[in-house]
Amino acid sequence: MDLLEGYNLRHPITSEQLSALKVMNKPIVAGSDAHFPQEIGLFRTIVRHELSSEEDLRKALLGGKIEIYGSPSPFYLEPLSQIVKGLKHKDLKLIGWSILNLIRYKTNFQCKKSISIKIVKKRNMFMIVEHG
């Protein structure tokens, strides 16, 4: 292992985790983990070194000649990504929870109790129903 991904758009790192990574004495890089075009480059590793080959890039990365930049993803993209995943895997519960999370993010809603959901298919449409 030559490099550690310490910064990732989808999984923010805590200061404690960053300290643990630094103990390993390896260069720390960032990655977008982009699932949508809007996310490309939101977290990035910039190499500030003259490059003319892959070997130059490897040396620059291993030598720590990098800068890391990042900015948060738009609030709606994480739940939207989970909705797409749910559709792909036909996971109705994941779709339902993702839609609820999207609504919570949008309205800044804080849930004070546990919610059980049921997904009901009527005609060609799915409905999320709170129950229990």
What proportion strand? 25-35%
Record the strand order, biggest sheet: 1-2
Task: Output mean pLDDT.
Answer: 78
**How would a crystallographer describe the biggest sheet?**
2 strands, parallel
- The rounded distance between the terminal residues' Cα atoms is 48 Å
Helix content: 25-40%
In total, how many beta strands? 6
- The number of distinct structural domains comes to 2
| Alpha plus pi helix count | 4
> What is the general shape?
elongated
Please provide the ordered H/E string of secondary-structure elements: EHEEHEHHEE
The parts where pLDDT drops under 50 for at least 5 residues are 108-117, 126-132
Structural class: alpha+beta
Q: How many whole angstroms does the radius of gyration measure?
A: 20 Å
Description:
This protein is an alpha+beta fold and 132 residues long. It has two domains: 4-70, no CATH class; 77-131, no CATH class. The protein has four helices and six strands. It has helices at 15-23, 54-62, 77-89, 92-107, and strands at residues 4-8, 28-31, 43-47, 66-70, 116-122, 125-131. The strands form three sheets. A two-stranded parallel sheet has the order 1-2. Strand 5 and strand 6 form a beta hairpin. Helix 3 runs antiparallel to helix 4 (92-107). The longest helix is centred in the C-terminal third of the chain and has 16 residues, at 92-107. It is elongated and about 60 Å long. Mean pLDDT is 78; it is low at 108-117 and 126-132.
